[in-house]
């Protein structure tokens, strides 16, 4: 709040910069300096030319580099500033809110590295209002604050949303899902860039691993949303691992994506976590065809390529003889496949549960088109909103957790034995689920990203008794 009451400041005061999630910072008040300055490092401009932004990090506590607050702000100018030692520096200028003594007002601040200075902030005369009196012989005329606010619980309460730089790994910038993510992120003030995974390449070394794109090193991203196509799973996961090495928050990890794409591996993960699924069998030798089918049960049977997507490479064999023919054909193509029990009572329907951050945020029932047993929307299936049971919700969240996926489409079959997981999709489409459920799924994903990409709290030093 603003106030016209006279405010007296000493030459040293405790201030707050709430817009930057800096609830406590000790500053030197210097009327001899025209411009205010804030300690910042890793200063990096981003965004469009019409709406330039800058992101930077601050060590608010002198002598403690473990406490880092990431910040972002709109750039209002870039000025040449001459420091007290006569050196000239071109600095980014931002506008932020200053709070002190129960009063607050907007000020302009330049960003510069003040790590060698005793004060993380210098407040110049330009930032002082007419009703502010500076007493150079006094200090701490206003209430003292504490660095204790930078502990975990307190920091969560004062952390403000900041502009993030987000990469969407996608080869289809015009697709509904990618376009929705870009639109939602930009509406929130973030900068969202679509990166074609196949045009990325890597520099792998111990000191400075980097990701390059079209001949240039990619900037640091706050978060990566992978939408890696099935045909480039191996390379896409390699690129994603590089971002993970850099410490970037990835909505879905490379291990979870790789495991979910390999149908055999995926079912082994589900089995390890005791999650219900159709009975599944796999064998490499053609001599084991009969035993393979016997393990699954009686016909009809499902024969599925290990890397099938959107219902492609999935065949329903009505009889054991038909299953043998399909298996022989797949083996002739040297394709890897598995055989599954066909859940008759599902009757061409499945439930798609969308899980974000460990919670089912939307669900829909997909029904196959005509006589097709596959309910995929890409194959003409239809979708409508559906209420799911507590058991189905629990199975869906457990499945996403088993693959450590922050975003997952979990497909369930309703069987006489309870819900069975048909597939865990690490790049679920948003169009069908948003239209069927009328929910802002893209917005929920960004809620999760904003929650996860936060400043690290101050770690308390452990005390040991002699």
Automatic annotation (TrEMBL):
UniProt protein name: Probable alpha-L-glutamate ligase
One MF term in the entry's GO annotations: metal ion binding
Alphabetized, the UniProt keywords read: ATP-binding, Ligase, Magnesium, Manganese, Metal-binding, Nucleotide-binding, Protein biosynthesis
InterPro entries in the cross-refs: Asp_endopeptidase, ATP-grasp, ATP-grasp_RimK-type, ATP_grasp_subdomain_1, Peptidase_aspartic_dom_sf, Rimk_N, Rp_bS6_RimK/Lys_biosynth_LsyX
- Source species, please? Litoreibacter ponti
Q: Does the keyword Ligase apply?
A: yes
Q: Which residues form the ATP-grasp domain?
A: 267-450
What NCBIfam families would the database entry show?
A: PRK10446.1, rimK_fam
Bilayer-crossing residues are: none
- PANTHER family from the entry? RIBOSOMAL PROTEIN BS6--L-GLUTAMATE LIGASE, RIBOSOMAL PROTEIN S6 MODIFICATION PROTEIN
Q: Which domain of life is it from?
A: Bacteria
Member of which family?
In the C-terminal section; belongs to the RimK family.
Q: Which Gene3D superfamilies match?
A: 3.40.50.20, Acid Proteases (2.40.70.10), ATP-grasp fold, A domain (3.30.1490.20), ATP-grasp fold, B domain (3.30.470.20)
A GO biological process of this protein is: translation
Names of the cofactor(s) = Mn(2+); Mg(2+)
């Amino acid at each position: 709040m603003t106030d016209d009451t006279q405010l007296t400041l000493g030459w040293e005061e405790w201030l707050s910069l709430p817009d930057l999630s800096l609830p406590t910072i000790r500053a030197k008040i210097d009327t001899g300096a025209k411009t205010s300055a804030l300690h910042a490092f890793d200063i990096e401009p981003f965004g469009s030319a019409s709406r330039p932004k800058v992101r930077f990090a601050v060590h608010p506590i002198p002598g403690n580099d473990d406490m880092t607050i990431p910040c972002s702000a709109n750039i209002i100018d870039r000025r040449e500033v001459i420091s007290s030692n006569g050196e000239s520096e071109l600095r980014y200028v931002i506008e932020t809110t200053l709070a002190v003594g129960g009063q607050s007002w907007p000020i302009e601040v330049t960003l510069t590295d003040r790590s060698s200075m005793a004060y993380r902030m210098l407040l110049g005369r330009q930032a002082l209002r007419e009703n502010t009196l500076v007493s150079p012989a006094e200090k701490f005329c206003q209430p003292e604050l504490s660095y204790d606010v930078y502990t975990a619980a307190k920091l969560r309460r004062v952390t403000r949303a900041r502009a993030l730089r987000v990469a969407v790994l996608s080869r289809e910038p015009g697709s509904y899902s990618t376009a929705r993510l870009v639109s939602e992120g930009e509406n929130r003030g973030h900068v969202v860039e679509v990166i074609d995974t196949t045009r990325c390449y890597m520099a792998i070394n111990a000191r400075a691993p980097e990701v390059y794109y079209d001949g240039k090193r990619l900037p640091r991203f706050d978060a990566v949303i992978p939408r890696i196509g099935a045909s480039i799973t191996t390379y896409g996961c390699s690129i994603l691992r590089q971002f993970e090495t850099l410490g970037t928050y990835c909505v879905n990890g490379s291990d979870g994506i790789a495991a979910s794409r390999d149908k055999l591996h995926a079912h082994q993960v589900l089995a390890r976590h005791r999650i219900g699924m159709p009975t599944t069998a796999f064998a490499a030798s053609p001599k084991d065809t009969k035993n393979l089918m016997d393990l699954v049960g009686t016909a009809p049977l499902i024969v599925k390529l290990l890397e099938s997507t959107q219902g492609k490479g999935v065949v329903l064999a009505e009889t054991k003889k038909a299953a043998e023919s399909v298996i022989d054909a797949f083996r002739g193509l040297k394709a890897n496949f598995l055989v599954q029990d066909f859940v008759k009572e599902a009757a061409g329907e499945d439930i798609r549960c969308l899980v974000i951050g460990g919670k089912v945020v939307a669900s829909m029932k997909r029904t196959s088109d005509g006589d097709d047993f596959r309910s995929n929307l890409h194959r003409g299936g239809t979708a409508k909103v559906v209420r799911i049971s507590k058991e189905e919700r629990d199975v869906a969240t457990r499945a996403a957790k088993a693959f450590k996926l922050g975003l997952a489409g979990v497909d369930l079959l309703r069987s006489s034995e309870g819900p069975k997981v048909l597939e865990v999709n690490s790049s679920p489409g948003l169009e069908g689920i948003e239209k069927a459920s009328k929910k802002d799924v893209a917005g929920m994903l960004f809620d999760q990203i904003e929650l996860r990409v936060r400043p690290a709290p101050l770690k308390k030093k452990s005390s040991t008794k002699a």
